């Protein structure tokens, strides 16, 4: 039986661990991560070296890509041909690399992710800047290693006269680690290297003053200098990118024109995504999208609807699409070809300078060796010419070439190389001028040798030479930065940025159903009409609150228990004119036994009919005549489950809340037609938990139905108080007819209460031409001009503005 050798038992877990680690290191070192010195992965290095060996320089004729791929596969990279071709294609794409290393002829793919043509159709050669990566490779500047079958040698790294890793960046996924290095502008990187040569102690911040940020091949805009510097200092970070978009004004409808998109974004996929968002109504206002890109540049035309808000549409594009995205920097590269390490900007530049110093040193040593070899030959030729007759005589007497070679060495002391050079010397060298050329060349070579020796002895001179060569690169490859940098951080696209600012009507029923609708839903009618259906209420449900608010306003909901809740106006679902709305319990954490007693819009737009002033105070009045003033900032951060706004006593109910400046006057009106006017300063500011002070002395069955703010800005002479009655009547009375009193009185008459006009349901101060929208308990709505409502005295019953169905009453109204 044949000896099968010794078998050693081994734990499978140990075997798996070692095998996996071997595989992981193979992926890390030999496949996925770039070398910090030349910025290349093995496959890219082999492609470029193969093209160099094939003589495909920037001034050579193009060769078929299939020939290049085949050569690379056969000699250096024994993997799939498509893997090599795809890698070569990326090196040729000007939207993938800031400085392409391969010049392609034919279809090499597009930014729309179109595939390249087959390798048998396309042709390629090296670009001029790729030649800089390979410059001096023949001068033993880099180490070589046997290829996969040991039939030839390949470079372990390229000389890299350009800092390719930072110029073109890198993207790679290894085992347990990944790299994502952005591309940069050559001029900035070279200037940073110059600074580091002059001042090795320069900090990352010093370098970041020069390297302002990535420079992507697709252009775009990047934000936040601070985050960019942080990424450079630590080697990790996120950089916000945005495409370049412009709003173009046109007759009829505007356009958004996108001329640049963020790096690594697929243009076709971006357009498809926008179309899907429009279809799903996540972005509104877009009528059509067209890709108008051509060889002149990128152009995505987005046609907007006539009523669209262009900036809101653009903000929506930034928020929901890849027109804005982060580039997650992870500057991981191989140091010394074997050690994966996350590097700062300074460390990357230092590693590159160290590599270039080694390359220049090896190149200088190579040149010195060749120069000394030439000097040795020239010294032999000069010595031979000095004794030319004896040399010729010796050669003539020799039996053959080998004998002549040996005799020259023996008789004159020439070396092997010198003797060979003498035997190969032409007769024309004997001419006087030719002899002089040899002497001149000898002197020149001796001078060069002295300079090279001096260079090798001084590392500072070598580093200075590296800087000089980098400066020449900067001049040869000039170009403007493509990516614009904005120093400050980009403002986050918030919900407000994609919601158009417009006046909306908020409707809330006693049963707790709420909706918002556009004011245009109600057309203007003449006074005294029946109106239109404004809401389909459930049986026995009635409309209770009706107000206008800007979509960006904060809505404060005050409940019967004295608590306050908050939400944005745009968070209230938009409904149609007749829809019943959504249950408010979906938006606010209100208990089942709580009712919304007042809604105030704070911030932007009308606030309970009191205008759009930024509030200083919120004044609250209860149905039984208690009043309280609280600083508005007490409600800046209302918790999701609400907070206490007022303490109610004896079964009292909060009736209304108004926004004031602290210097205004208040005009309160009761259901029975009494009114009182007093200064806001009569009420001192209180805490949220206070119950307030007496505002007005009421009769037994009377309740507060309206609180109005007479602003300190003036205009009282022209202002009027609108009083609405529950049977559809209304009237206006000049404000000066209401004399100022002290808080706590019983007030004066403001309306004649009869069975015909009913009790007062609400009031508002009117200063200019406006419209009233009134809604009944059963959901009938009328919109009419207030100019049609006559100005009457205080003790009058008003005129009919709305004709209701039997048993229906006016529930609420709002002023536009």
Automatic annotation (TrEMBL):
Keyword line: ATP-binding, Coiled coil, Cytoplasm, DNA-binding, Isomerase, Nucleotide-binding, Topoisomerase
Name the job this protein performs: A type II topoisomerase that negatively supercoils closed circular double-stranded (ds) DNA in an ATP-dependent manner to modulate DNA topology and maintain chromosomes in an underwound state. Negative supercoiling favors strand separation, and DNA replication, transcription, recombination and repair, all of which involve strand separation. Also able to catalyze the interconversion of other topological isomers of dsDNA rings, including catenanes and knotted rings. Type II topoisomerases break and join 2 DNA strands simultaneously in an ATP-dependent manner.
Biological processes, Gene Ontology terms: DNA topological change; DNA-templated DNA replication
Cellular component per GO?
A: chromosome; cytoplasm; DNA topoisomerase type II (double strand cut, ATP-hydrolyzing) complex
Which family, according to UniProt? Belongs to the type II topoisomerase GyrA/ParC subunit family.
Source species: Candidatus Sungbacteria bacterium RIFCSPLOWO2_01_FULL_60_25
Q: Which stretches make up the Topo IIA-type catalytic domain? A: 33-498
Instruction: Identify the Pfam families for this entry.
Output: DNA_gyraseA_C, DNA_topoisoIV
- What is the reaction catalyzed? ATP-dependent breakage, passage and rejoining of double-stranded DNA
Which InterPro entries does the UniProt entry name for this protein?
Answer: GyrA, GyrA/parC_rep, Gyrase/topoIV_suA_C, Topo_IIA-like_dom_sf, Topo_IIA_A/C_ab, Topo_IIA_A_a_sf, Topo_IIA_dom_A, Type_II_DNA_Topoisomerases
The parts of the chain that form a coiled coil are: 435-462
Q: Show where the record puts the motif GyrA-box.
A: 525-531
Main localisation, per the record? cytoplasm
The top EC class, named as a word, is: isomerase
- Recorded protein name is DNA gyrase subunit A
Q: Name one GO molecular function term.
A: DNA binding
In the UniProt entry, which residues are flagged as the active site? 121 (o-(5'-phospho-dna)-tyrosine intermediate)
Q: Where in the cell is it found?
A: Cytoplasm
Miscellaneous information on this protein: Few gyrases are as efficient as E.coli at forming negative supercoils. Not all organisms have 2 type II topoisomerases; in organisms with a single type II topoisomerase this enzyme also has to decatenate newly replicated chromosomes.
What's its EC? 5.6.2.2
């Amino acid at each position: 039986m044949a000896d099968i050798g010794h078998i050693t038992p081994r734990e499978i877990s140990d075997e798996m661990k070692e095998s996996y680690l071997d595989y992981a290191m193979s992926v890390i070192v030999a496949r996925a991560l770039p070398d910090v010195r030349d910025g290349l992965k093995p496959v890219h290095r082999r492609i470029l070296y193969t093209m160099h060996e094939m003589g495909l320089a920037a001034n050579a004729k193009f060769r078929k890509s299939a020939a290049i791929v085949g050569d690379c596969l056969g000699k250096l990279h024994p993997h799939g041909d498509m893997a090599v071709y795809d890698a070569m294609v990326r090196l040729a794409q000007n939207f993938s690399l800031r400085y392409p290393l391969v010049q392609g002829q034919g279809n090499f793919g597009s930014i729309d992710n179109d595939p390249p043509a087959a390798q048998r159709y396309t042709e390629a050669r090296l670009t001029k800047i790729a030649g800089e990566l390979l410059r001096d490779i023949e001068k033993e500047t880099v180490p070589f290693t046997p290829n996969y079958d040991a039939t030839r040698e390949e470079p372990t790294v390229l000389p890299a006269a350009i800092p390719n890793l930072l110029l073109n960046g890198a993207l790679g996924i290894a085992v347990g680690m990944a790299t994502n290095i952005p591309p940069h502008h050559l001029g900035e990187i070279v200037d940073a290297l110059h600074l580091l040569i002059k001042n090795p102690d320069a900090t990352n911040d010093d370098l970041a003053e020069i390297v302002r940020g990535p420079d992507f091949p697709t252009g775009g805009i990047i934000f936040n200098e601070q985050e960019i510097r942080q990424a450079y200092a630590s080697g990790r970070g996120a950089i916000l990118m945005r495409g370049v978009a412009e709003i173009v004004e046109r007759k009829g409808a505007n356009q958004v024109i996108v001329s640049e998109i963020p790096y690594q974004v697929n243009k076709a996929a971006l357009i498809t995504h926008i179309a899907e968002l429009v279809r799903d109504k996540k972005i509104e206002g877009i009528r059509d999208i067209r890709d108008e890109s051509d060889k002149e540049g990128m152009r995505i035309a987005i046609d907007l609807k006539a009523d669209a808000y262009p900036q809101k549409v653009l903000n929506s594009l930034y928020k929901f699409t890849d027109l804005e995205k982060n580039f997650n920097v992870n500057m991981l590269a191989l140091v010394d070809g074997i050690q994966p390490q996350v590097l700062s900007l300074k460390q990357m530049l230092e590693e590159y300078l160290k590599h270039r110093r080694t390359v220049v040193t090896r190149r200088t040593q190579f040149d010195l060796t060749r120069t000394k070899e030439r000097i040795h030959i020239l010294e032999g030729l000069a010595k031979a010419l000095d004794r030319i007759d004896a040399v010729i005589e010796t050669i003539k007497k020799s039996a053959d070439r080998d004998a002549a070679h040996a005799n020259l060495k023996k008789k004159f002391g020439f070396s092997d190389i010198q003797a060979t050079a003498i035997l190969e010397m032409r007769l024309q060298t004997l001419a006087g001028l030719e002899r002089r050329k040899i002497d001149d060349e000898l002197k020149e070579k001796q001078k060069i040798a002295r300079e090279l020796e001096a260079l090798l002895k001084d590392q500072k001179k070598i580093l200075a030479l590296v800087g000089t060569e980098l400066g020449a690169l900067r001049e040869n490859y000039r170009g403007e930065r493509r990516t614009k940098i904005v120093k400050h951080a980009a403002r986050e696209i918030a919900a407000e940025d994609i919601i158009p600012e417009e006046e909306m009507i908020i409707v809330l029923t006693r049963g707790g159903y709420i909706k918002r609708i556009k004011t245009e839903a109600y057309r203007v009618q003449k006074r005294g009409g029946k109106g239109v259906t404004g809401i389909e209420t459930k049986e026995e449900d009635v409309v209770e609150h009706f107000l206008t608010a800007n979509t960006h306003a904060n809505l404060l909901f005050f409940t019967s228990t004295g608590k306050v809740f908050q939400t944005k106006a745009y968070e209230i679902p938009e409904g149609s004119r007749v829809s019943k709305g959504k249950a408010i319990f979906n938006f606010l954490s209100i208990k089942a036994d709580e009712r919304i007693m007042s809604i105030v819009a704070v911030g932007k737009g009308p606030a309970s009919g009191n205008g759009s002033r930024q509030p200083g105070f919120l004044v609250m009045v209860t149905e039984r005549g208690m009043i309280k003033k609280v600083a508005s900032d007490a409600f800046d951060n209302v918790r999701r489950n609400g907070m206490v706004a007022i303490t109610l006593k004896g079964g009292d109910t909060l009736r209304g809340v108004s926004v004031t400046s602290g210097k205004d006057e208040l005009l309160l009106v009761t259901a029975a037609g009494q009114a009182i006017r007093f200064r806001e300063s009569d009420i001192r500011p209180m805490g949220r938990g206070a119950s307030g002070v007496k505002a007005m002395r009421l009769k037994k069955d009377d309740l507060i139905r309206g609180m109005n703010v007479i602003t300190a800005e003036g205009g009282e002479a022209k202002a009027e108080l609108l009083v609405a009655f529950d049977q559809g009547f209304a009237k206006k009375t000049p404000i000066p007819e209401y004399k100022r009193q002290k808080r706590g009185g019983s007030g004066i008459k403001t309306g004649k209460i009869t069975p015909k006009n009913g009790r007062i349901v609400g009031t508002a101060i009117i200063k200019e031409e406006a419209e009233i929208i009134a809604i009944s308990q059963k959901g009938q709505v009328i919109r009419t001009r207030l100019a049609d409502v006559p100005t009457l005295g205080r003790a009058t019953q008003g005129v009919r503005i709305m004709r209701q169905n039997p048993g229906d009453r006016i529930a609420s109204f709002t002023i536009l």
